[in-house]
Protein backbone atom coordinates (compact mmCIF):
# COMPACT_ATOMS: atom_id res chain seq x y z
CA UNK A 1 0.00 0.00 0.00
CA UNK A 2 0.96 3.68 -0.01
CA UNK A 3 3.98 4.48 2.13
CA UNK A 4 4.95 7.48 4.20
CA UNK A 5 8.65 7.85 4.91
CA UNK A 6 10.22 9.71 7.82
CA UNK A 7 13.80 10.94 8.02
CA UNK A 8 15.72 10.49 10.24
CA UNK A 9 14.53 7.43 12.12
CA UNK A 10 16.43 8.56 15.23
CA UNK A 11 17.80 11.90 16.33
CA UNK A 12 19.71 12.87 19.46
CA UNK A 13 20.27 16.55 20.16
CA UNK A 14 21.16 18.85 23.01
CA UNK A 15 18.47 20.92 24.67
CA UNK A 16 18.17 24.34 23.10
CA UNK A 17 19.24 23.23 19.64
CA UNK A 18 16.99 23.25 16.62
CA UNK A 19 15.75 20.06 15.03
CA UNK A 20 13.88 19.41 11.80
CA UNK A 21 11.91 16.22 11.31
CA UNK A 22 11.18 15.28 7.72
CA UNK A 23 8.21 13.46 6.29
CA UNK A 24 7.74 12.22 2.73
CA UNK A 25 3.94 11.79 2.45
CA UNK A 26 1.92 9.75 -0.02
CA UNK A 27 2.36 11.51 -3.35
CA UNK A 28 -1.21 12.61 -4.12
CA UNK A 29 -2.25 13.36 -0.56
CA UNK A 30 -3.26 16.85 0.43
CA UNK A 31 -3.55 16.78 4.22
CA UNK A 32 -0.62 16.27 6.51
CA UNK A 33 -0.40 15.61 10.22
CA UNK A 34 2.07 15.30 13.06
CA UNK A 35 1.43 13.29 16.18
CA UNK A 36 3.63 13.00 19.28
CA UNK A 37 3.99 9.89 21.42
CA UNK A 38 5.96 10.03 24.65
CA UNK A 39 7.25 6.61 25.71
CA UNK A 40 4.45 4.56 27.27
CA UNK A 41 1.81 7.17 26.56
CA UNK A 42 -0.79 7.71 23.87
CA UNK A 43 -0.31 9.23 20.46
CA UNK A 44 -1.29 12.90 20.77
CA UNK A 45 -2.36 15.10 17.87
CA UNK A 46 -0.11 18.09 17.20
CA UNK A 47 -1.07 19.71 13.92
CA UNK A 48 -2.90 19.35 10.62
CA UNK A 49 -1.56 21.15 7.53
CA UNK A 50 -3.19 21.79 4.16
CA UNK A 51 -2.46 24.04 1.21
CA UNK A 52 0.39 25.76 2.97
CA UNK A 53 -1.54 26.51 6.12
CA UNK A 54 -2.08 25.11 9.58
CA UNK A 55 -5.71 23.97 9.60
CA UNK A 56 -5.86 22.73 13.15
CA UNK A 57 -3.47 22.45 16.07
CA UNK A 58 -3.54 21.26 19.65
CA UNK A 59 -2.23 22.90 22.78
CA UNK A 60 0.82 20.65 22.49
CA UNK A 61 1.82 22.56 19.35
CA UNK A 62 3.89 25.13 21.18
CA UNK A 63 5.22 28.39 19.77
CA UNK A 64 8.58 26.68 19.34
CA UNK A 65 7.02 24.32 16.77
CA UNK A 66 6.51 25.14 13.12
CA UNK A 67 5.50 23.16 10.04
CA UNK A 68 5.91 23.69 6.34
CA UNK A 69 6.00 21.90 3.01
CA UNK A 70 7.99 24.08 0.64
CA UNK A 71 7.29 23.41 -3.04
CA UNK A 72 5.71 20.01 -2.49
CA UNK A 73 8.82 18.51 -1.00
CA UNK A 74 9.12 17.12 2.51
CA UNK A 75 6.53 18.04 5.10
CA UNK A 76 8.65 19.21 8.03
CA UNK A 77 8.25 19.75 11.73
CA UNK A 78 10.78 22.16 13.17
CA UNK A 79 11.34 22.61 16.87
CA UNK A 80 13.37 25.64 17.88
CA UNK A 81 14.56 25.65 20.58
CA UNK A 82 14.11 22.10 21.82
CA UNK A 83 13.28 21.24 25.42
CA UNK A 84 13.69 18.03 27.41
CA UNK A 85 9.95 17.36 27.22
CA UNK A 86 10.13 17.25 23.45
CA UNK A 87 11.72 13.80 23.69
CA UNK A 88 9.21 11.48 22.04
CA UNK A 89 8.41 9.57 18.88
CA UNK A 90 6.94 11.85 16.25
CA UNK A 91 4.63 10.26 13.71
CA UNK A 92 3.80 11.89 10.41
CA UNK A 93 0.62 10.99 8.55
CA UNK A 94 -1.06 12.03 5.34
CA UNK A 95 -4.53 11.68 3.85
CA UNK A 96 -6.27 12.59 0.64
CA UNK A 97 -9.29 14.08 2.34
CA UNK A 98 -9.50 15.75 5.72
CA UNK A 99 -10.65 14.17 8.93
CA UNK A 100 -12.61 11.05 8.09
CA UNK A 101 -10.32 9.71 5.39
CA UNK A 102 -7.76 6.99 6.04
CA UNK A 103 -4.53 8.34 7.43
CA UNK A 104 -1.29 6.74 6.26
CA UNK A 105 1.40 6.87 8.89
CA UNK A 106 5.14 6.88 8.72
CA UNK A 107 7.26 4.68 11.03
CA UNK A 108 8.07 7.58 13.34
CA UNK A 109 11.16 9.59 14.26
CA UNK A 110 12.55 8.91 17.72
CA UNK A 111 13.77 12.21 19.13
CA UNK A 112 15.88 12.35 22.26
CA UNK A 113 16.68 15.74 23.75
CA UNK A 114 19.52 15.70 26.26
CA UNK B 1 -13.72 18.22 24.94
CA UNK B 2 -13.67 15.05 22.88
CA UNK B 3 -12.05 11.96 24.33
CA UNK B 4 -11.45 8.30 23.55
CA UNK B 5 -11.13 5.74 26.31
CA UNK B 6 -9.47 2.37 25.96
CA UNK B 7 -9.59 0.97 29.45
CA UNK B 8 -7.40 -2.05 28.92
CA UNK B 9 -3.75 -1.28 28.52
CA UNK B 10 -2.86 -4.92 27.98
CA UNK B 11 -4.96 -7.88 26.90
CA UNK B 12 -3.34 -11.30 26.97
CA UNK B 13 -5.10 -14.19 25.22
CA UNK B 14 -4.48 -17.74 24.22
CA UNK B 15 -4.51 -18.42 20.50
CA UNK B 16 -7.95 -19.41 19.25
CA UNK B 17 -9.92 -17.50 21.88
CA UNK B 18 -12.15 -14.57 20.92
CA UNK B 19 -10.82 -11.03 21.02
CA UNK B 20 -12.68 -8.02 22.34
CA UNK B 21 -10.94 -4.68 22.78
CA UNK B 22 -13.03 -1.95 24.31
CA UNK B 23 -13.38 1.58 23.02
CA UNK B 24 -15.74 4.25 24.28
CA UNK B 25 -15.76 7.87 23.32
CA UNK B 26 -17.17 11.22 24.32
CA UNK B 27 -18.21 14.01 22.00
CA UNK B 28 -21.08 16.45 21.89
CA UNK B 29 -21.19 16.19 18.11
CA UNK B 30 -23.45 13.76 16.31
CA UNK B 31 -21.18 13.28 13.30
CA UNK B 32 -18.58 11.14 15.04
CA UNK B 33 -16.32 8.98 12.87
CA UNK B 34 -14.57 6.13 14.67
CA UNK B 35 -11.43 4.26 13.63
CA UNK B 36 -9.34 1.32 14.73
CA UNK B 37 -5.66 1.47 13.84
CA UNK B 38 -3.20 -1.38 14.39
CA UNK B 39 0.47 -0.84 15.09
CA UNK B 40 2.74 -3.85 14.67
CA UNK B 41 6.24 -3.71 16.12
CA UNK B 42 8.72 -2.01 13.78
CA UNK B 43 5.99 -1.00 11.35
CA UNK B 44 3.84 2.07 10.81
CA UNK B 45 0.36 2.31 12.35
CA UNK B 46 -2.25 1.43 9.74
CA UNK B 47 -6.01 1.58 9.47
CA UNK B 48 -7.87 -1.58 10.39
CA UNK B 49 -11.45 -0.36 10.03
CA UNK B 50 -13.64 2.70 10.39
CA UNK B 51 -17.27 3.65 10.67
CA UNK B 52 -19.67 6.51 11.12
CA UNK B 53 -22.91 4.57 10.67
CA UNK B 54 -24.85 3.75 13.79
CA UNK B 55 -25.49 0.06 14.47
CA UNK B 56 -23.78 -1.16 11.30
CA UNK B 57 -21.13 -3.87 11.55
CA UNK B 58 -17.85 -3.08 9.78
CA UNK B 59 -15.42 -5.88 8.98
CA UNK B 60 -11.87 -6.15 7.73
CA UNK B 61 -9.22 -8.86 7.90
CA UNK B 62 -11.24 -10.98 10.30
CA UNK B 63 -11.88 -8.12 12.73
CA UNK B 64 -15.22 -6.40 13.15
CA UNK B 65 -16.69 -3.50 15.07
CA UNK B 66 -20.11 -1.88 15.36
CA UNK B 67 -20.56 1.76 16.20
CA UNK B 68 -23.23 2.18 18.86
CA UNK B 69 -23.99 5.85 19.30
CA UNK B 70 -26.44 5.16 22.12
CA UNK B 71 -23.61 3.82 24.26
CA UNK B 72 -20.78 5.75 22.54
CA UNK B 73 -18.90 2.54 21.91
CA UNK B 74 -16.88 1.02 19.07
CA UNK B 75 -15.47 -2.24 20.43
CA UNK B 76 -13.14 -4.29 18.25
CA UNK B 77 -13.80 -8.02 18.02
CA UNK B 78 -12.45 -11.12 16.36
CA UNK B 79 -13.81 -14.61 16.71
CA UNK B 80 -10.45 -16.37 17.06
CA UNK B 81 -7.14 -14.77 17.98
CA UNK B 82 -4.00 -15.63 16.03
CA UNK B 83 -0.41 -15.23 17.11
CA UNK B 84 0.05 -12.69 14.31
CA UNK B 85 -2.62 -10.44 15.86
CA UNK B 86 -0.21 -9.43 18.63
CA UNK B 87 0.14 -5.66 18.26
CA UNK B 88 -0.94 -2.30 19.63
CA UNK B 89 -4.51 -1.34 18.77
CA UNK B 90 -5.64 2.27 18.80
CA UNK B 91 -9.20 3.54 18.73
CA UNK B 92 -9.57 7.05 17.30
CA UNK B 93 -12.32 9.64 16.92
CA UNK B 94 -12.85 12.33 14.31
CA UNK B 95 -15.73 14.78 14.17
CA UNK B 96 -16.47 17.80 12.01
CA UNK B 97 -13.65 16.65 9.73
CA UNK B 98 -11.07 17.35 12.42
CA UNK B 99 -7.93 15.26 12.63
CA UNK B 100 -8.52 11.98 14.48
CA UNK B 101 -7.73 11.89 18.18
CA UNK B 102 -6.37 8.63 19.51
CA UNK B 103 -7.03 6.64 22.64
CA UNK B 104 -4.25 5.35 24.85
CA UNK B 105 -4.06 2.08 22.95
CA UNK B 106 -4.44 -1.55 23.97
CA UNK B 107 -1.57 -3.96 23.60
CA UNK B 108 -2.87 -7.35 22.49
CA UNK B 109 -0.59 -10.26 23.29
CA UNK B 110 -1.61 -13.64 21.87
CA UNK B 111 0.11 -16.67 23.34
CA UNK B 112 0.29 -20.21 21.93
Describe the protein's architecture and organization.
The complex is a heterodimer of chains A (114) and B (112). Chain A is built from no helices and eleven strands. In chain A, the strands form two sheets. In chain A, strands 2, 4, 5, 6, 9, 10 and 11 form a seven-stranded mixed beta sheet that branches. The radius of gyration of chain A is 13 Å and the shape is globular. The mean pLDDT of chain A is 94. Chain B has 112 residues and is mainly β. Chain B has one domain: Immunoglobulins (Immunoglobulin-like, Sandwich). Helices cover 0% and strands 48% of the residues of chain B. In chain B, strands 2, 5, 6, 10, 11 and 12 form a six-stranded mixed beta sheet that branches. In chain B, strands 3-9-8-7 form a four-stranded antiparallel beta sheet, with no helix packed on it. In chain B, strand 10 and strand 11 form a beta hairpin. The radius of gyration of chain B is 13 Å and the shape is globular. Classes of the chains: A mainly beta (114), B mainly beta (112). The interface between A and B is medium-sized, with 23 and 23 residues.
Instruction: Report on the biggest sheet of chain B.
Output: 6 strands, mixed
The CATH topology of chain B comes to Immunoglobulin-like
* Helical segment count of chain A: 0
How many extended strands of chain A? 11
Termini Cα gap of chain A? 36 Å
- At CATH level 2, the architecture of chain A is Sandwich
SSE string of chain B:
EEEEEEEEEEEE
Q: Considering DSSP H and I runs of 4 or more, what fraction of the residues of chain A is helical?
A: under 10%
Tell me what the CATH architecture of chain B is: Sandwich
Amino acid sequence: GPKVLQIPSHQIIDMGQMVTLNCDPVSNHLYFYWYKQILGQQMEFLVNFYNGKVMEKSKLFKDQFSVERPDGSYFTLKIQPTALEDSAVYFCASSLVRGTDTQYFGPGTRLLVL
Amino acid sequence: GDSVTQKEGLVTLTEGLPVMLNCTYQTIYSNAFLFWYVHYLNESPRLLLKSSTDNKRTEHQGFHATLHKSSSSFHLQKSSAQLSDSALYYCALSRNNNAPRFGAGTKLSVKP
